[in-house]
């Protein structure tokens, strides 16, 4: 999401497969090398492993028991609660995201690059950290309303970034024509230009809905019964593993349906961008009062989202008269967080490379199937992947249960789509002609790969790895299920304290997590906002 904001597709590609674009060089009918295809198939099989194992677990259960679990009142209540939450958060993100995107793309603001950074940085703030800040200020905050506020603040960038990029690329010729026919500037913009950004905004809204449906920490802290909380509770609080598996399966099906809906919306957005003309208007001036109002609105949202959590944490520490910090334990948790997230980023990049190169350079039904399977992690919540790998490791490889390799693998499966989207986009931007010239000069295929393709594509690939690292740092449910015995990350340490109501004691871990996650996120945003006003056609 943070790789680039100079084009609409770069704002979304790390979270979903880009729409097919045939590169200029190789023919779509050319067969890929067997080694590349074989490695890609292995990666796709690994990505599908958690879902396949969960399906096997449910199929092996007593059919009557499964049907009874599906038809019970609690399943219906969880479905209604989750649906209501998703609808409220999606609506809030769509409205706030379009407003923010309009200000970023169409209004002349002081220091425009700063506002792009502030609009994107909330993606580095875990939703449960925002929920923790709410509880630190109001310990009695519970239920749907505070949870919707938290998730809207956390998920709005999913809508803002692609919508702002789409508005930058929108054809303003019809808007000018509407002005000449008597419509005012606001009416012409809302009636003519804004609909051009709606496909991008809807695609981002579906991503926000997907995040909401799969989120665990914020609903658990604010005591709102959703599917993710129910799966975690069934796993930890009872010995009913079949009930946990069936609930997780329902959650996986719902998230995969949202993924399909997001891909349909993004396909419409891609077609709309392909037919967009090149007549574009520069940002407008609102005057001193209008500019002040716009800056105040953007600054307020950024302050609540980015400064609110640390301010609330510091306030809890001051109110408690200071907190005795176990520095050794805190440093150990920070070290574990960095090592596990760094290992996940490296593994995800290594897994993404063969599939990304295959998808960028070859076109066939086999390639499309392999790539789509590799993106399954996008539709699997952390609680589902964690539960699946618990079952798998206990049954197939019990000596690996609750070890670091299983947790790193879970991170890599969950966030492989982010690395894969970045890798495919980076390789697609390497001119095929440059590779062919290198081969005609006598270099081997491997030498061409290292001296031409890797040299030009590595910044995008590395950015995908950083994105995986940022996301893995704040992953909570899979970490709670799979972390090695005696090992804490900053996320689990924060969770352990907040689950007992010790908000002051949890503040140091929360601050450390916020600082660690914001450093690589700031690097990504800085790289992506160097040229926020540029656009690129497909």
UniProtKB/TrEMBL annotation:
Keyword Hydrolase: no
Record field: compositional bias (Pro residues): 15-26
Stretches for region Disordered: 1-30
Record-annotated ABC transmembrane type-1 domain positions: 79-262, 334-524
Assigned keywords, A-Z: Cell inner membrane, Cell membrane, Membrane, Transmembrane, Transmembrane helix, Transport
Subcellular location: Cell inner membrane; Cell membrane
Family annotation (InterPro entries): MetI-like, MetI-like_sf
Membrane topology, from the record: Multi-pass membrane protein
Superkingdom of origin organism: Bacteria
Entry coiled-coil feature ranges: none
Cross-referenced CDD domains: TM_PBP2 (cd06261)
Primary localization class, coarse: membrane
Keyword Cell inner membrane attached: yes
Membrane spanning residue stretches: 35-56, 76-101, 113-137, 143-167, 244-265, 286-307, 338-360, 372-393, 503-525
Annotated family: Belongs to the binding-protein-dependent transport system permease family.
Protein's recorded name: ABC transporter permease subunit
Provenance organism: Pseudonocardia nematodicida
Highest classification ranks of the organism: Bacteria, Bacillati, Actinomycetota, Actinomycetes, Pseudonocardiales
């Amino acid at each position: 999401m943070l790789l680039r904001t100079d084009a609409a597709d770069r704002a979304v590609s790390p979270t979903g497969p880009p729409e097919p674009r045939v590169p200029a060089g190789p023919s779509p009918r050319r067969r890929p090398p067997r080694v590349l295809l074989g490695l890609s198939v292995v990666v796709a099989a690994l990505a599908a492993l958690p879902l396949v194992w969960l399906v096997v677990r449910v199929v092996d259960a007593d059919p009557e028991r499964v049907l009874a679990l599906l038809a019970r009142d609690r399943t219906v209540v969880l479905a209604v609660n989750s649906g209501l939450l998703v609808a409220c958060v999606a609506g809030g993100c769509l409205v706030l995201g379009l407003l923010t995107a309009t200000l970023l793309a169409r209004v002349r603001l002081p220091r425009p690059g700063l506002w792009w950074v502030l609009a994107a940085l909330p993606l580095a703030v875990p939703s449960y950290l925002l929920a923790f800040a709410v509880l630190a200020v109001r310990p009695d905050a519970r239920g749907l309303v505070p949870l919707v506020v938290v998730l809207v603040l956390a998920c709005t960038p999913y809508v803002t970034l692609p919508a702002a990029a789409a508005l930058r690329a929108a054809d303003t010729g019809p808007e000018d024509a509407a002005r000449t026919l008597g419509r005012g500037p606001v009416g012409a913009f809302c009636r003519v230009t804004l609909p051009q950004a709606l496909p991008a905004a809807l695609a981002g809204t579906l991503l926000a809905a997907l995040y909401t449906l799969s989120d665990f920490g914020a609903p658990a802290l604010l005591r709102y019964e959703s599917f993710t909380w129910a799966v975690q509770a069934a796993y930890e609080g009872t010995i009913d593993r079949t009930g946990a598996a069936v609930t997780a399966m329902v959650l996986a099906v719902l998230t995969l349906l949202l993924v399909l809906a997001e891909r349909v919306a993004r396909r419409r957005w891609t077609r709309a961008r392909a037919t967009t003309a090149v007549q574009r208007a520069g940002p407008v001036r609102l005057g001193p009062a209008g500019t002040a109002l716009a800056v105040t609105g953007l600054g307020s949202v950024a302050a609540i989202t980015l400064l609110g959590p640390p301010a609330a944490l510091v306030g809890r520490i001051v109110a408690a008269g200071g907190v005795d910090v176990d520095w050794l334990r805190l440093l150990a948790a920070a070290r574990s967080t960095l090592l596990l997230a760094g290992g996940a980023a490296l593994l995800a990049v290594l897994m993404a490379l063969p599939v990304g190169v295959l998808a960028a350079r070859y076109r066939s039904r086999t390639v499309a199937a392999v790539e789509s399977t590799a993106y399954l992690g996008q539709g699997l919540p952390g609680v589902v992947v964690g539960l699946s790998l618990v079952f798998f490791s206990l049954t197939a490889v019990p000596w690996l249960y609750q070890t670091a390799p299983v947790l790193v693998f879970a991170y890599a499966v969950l966030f492989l789509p982010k690395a894969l989207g970045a890798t495919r986009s980076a390789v697609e931007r390497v001119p095929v002609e440059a590779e062919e010239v290198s081969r005609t000069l006598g270099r081997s295929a491997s030498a061409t790969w290292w001296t031409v393709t890797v040299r030009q594509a590595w910044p995008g690939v590395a950015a995908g790895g950083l994105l995986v690292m940022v996301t893995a740092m704040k992953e909570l449910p899979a970490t709670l299920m799979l972390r090695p015995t005696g090992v804490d990350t900053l996320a689990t340490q924060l969770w352990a304290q907040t689950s007992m109501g010790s908000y002051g004691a949890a503040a140091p871990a929360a601050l450390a997590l916020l600082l660690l996650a914001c450093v690589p996120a700031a690097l990504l945003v800085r790289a992506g906002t160097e040229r926020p006003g540029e656009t690129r056609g497909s």
